């Protein structure tokens, strides 16, 4: 598996050095940025394949960086932050982050998160190589070859995790998928925090997919169990 280009956005020099030393030791390519403005510039100029993002930047909040990057890119964003409150995690995930790692963190956990993200990128590329697979359900269309989803002819702007979640549901239409199964497929693990993250991603996906999220047409919640993609008539 080819190592991706990673953008490290961190203003704390010792932490930034720890991350870049770890990346270098494991043959990752990387760029660095010490504030939000340079992070957005580096992201737009060099198209990194993964972004490691601190939230407490000197010139702007990391959540604002997420919003700016998401205006043109679906690059996976892993937040690395000292903010440990659930509200902070939910805000970052809701803005479009794909994962959240709390400081202090272990080098092993950082590398594990990167490996999971690489597997997700590889899975998306494999899906894109499948040129004869198009899923249609009512007004929803998922073009696996192009890696795009459409609703009533309009493209849905999804984060990588939202897209993978949608594909997982579509490929199992009519089946109830448990929280554990979904988190294993999306993140390669099933931790308690992942179920909370799953709820956030599901909520943001529904906002984009359902005209009336309170009366969902496509995704049905099975309380305490999981979710199901319902079959919708044309």
TrEMBL record:
Residue spans binding DNA: 132-231
Enumerate the subcellular locations listed in this protein's record, separating them with semicolons: Cytoplasm
Secretion signal span: none
Taking every annotated instance into account, which residue ranges of this chain make up the domain OmpR/PhoB-type? 132-231
Top-level lineage group: Bacteria
Family matches, as Gene3D superfamilies: 3.40.50.2300, 6.10.250.690, Winged helix-like DNA-binding domain superfamily/Winged helix DNA-binding domain
- Quote the PROSITE patterns the UniProt record gives: OMPR_PHOB (PS51755), RESPONSE_REGULATORY (PS50110)
For this protein, the record's InterPro entries field holds: CheY-like_superfamily, OmpR/PhoB-type_DNA-bd, Sig_transdc_resp-reg_C-effctor, Sig_transdc_resp-reg_receiver, WalR-like, WH-like_DNA-bd_sf
- Any one Gene Ontology cellular component term annotated for this protein: cytosol
Q: Where is the Response regulatory domain?
A: 5-118
Which Pfam family, an example, fits this chain? Trans_reg_C
What's in the keyword line of the UniProt record?
A: Cytoplasm, DNA-binding, Phosphoprotein, Transcription, Transcription regulation, Two-component regulatory system
Please name the GO terms that the record assigns under molecular function.
cis-regulatory region sequence-specific DNA binding; identical protein binding; phosphorelay response regulator activity
> Which SMART domains does this chain map to?
REC, Trans_reg_C
Gene Ontology BP term (one): positive regulation of DNA-templated transcription
- Its chief place of residence is cytoplasm
Q: Which residues carry this modification: 4-aspartylphosphate?
A: 54
This chain's function reads:
May play the central regulatory role in sporulation. It may be an element of the effector pathway responsible for the activation of sporulation genes in response to nutritional stress. Spo0A may act in concert with spo0H (a sigma factor) to control the expression of some genes that are critical to the sporulation process.
Q: What is this protein called?
A: Stage 0 sporulation protein A homolog
